[in-house]
Specification:
The chain has 128 residues and is α+β, with helices and mostly antiparallel strands. It has 3 helices and 8 strands; from the N terminus they run E-H-E-E-E-E-H-E-H-E-E. 28% of the residues lie in helices and 30% in strands. The protein has an 8-stranded mixed β-sheet.
């Protein structure tokens, strides 16, 4: 039997409870870049952002920032801006960046952003 566990929703003033200062800087940077308020949810170590213009799902630990899903709506260049903000965060935090669940139609985007296909199907890693 599967049970639904609702994601915890955090208001901006509660964000420090779910992320470190550097990750908070990434969220602020994304907000400034996109002009969106950034609502963030956390469940089982996975962060989910559902903003007006994009959705981003990711995990992060001491070594890897894993982009599990990114979906940009009606905005040319926004995906590139979001990924560049993630790269800045990863570089400042000494993290590798990995994109998982990459759709076949998005492979060109990831390759343009400096990623190569990994050993696991639909996984791309950033080449630095």
């Amino acid at each position: 039997m599967l049970y639904y566990q609702p994601m915890e929703r955090y208001k901006p003033e509660q964000r420090e409870n779910i992320m470190d200062e550097e990750l908070g800087d990434l969220i602020r940077n994304l907000s400034e870049t996109t002009g969106d308020k950034i609502p963030i949810e956390l469940i089982d170590g996975t962060y989910e952002i559902e903003a007006d213009n994009f959705t981003l799902t990711f995990t992060t630990d001491e070594e890897v920032f894993e982009i599990r899903n990114i979906d940009v709506r009606d905005s040319v260049g926004l995906g590139r801006q979001i990924i560049n903000a993630i790269h800045d965060y990863a570089d400042n935090s000494d993290l590798e960046v990995l994109a998982s669940n990459v759709l076949g139609t998005a492979r060109g985007f990831w390759e343009t952003m400096g990623y190569q296909e990994g050993e696991t199907q639909n996984e791309y890693f950033r080449v630095t």
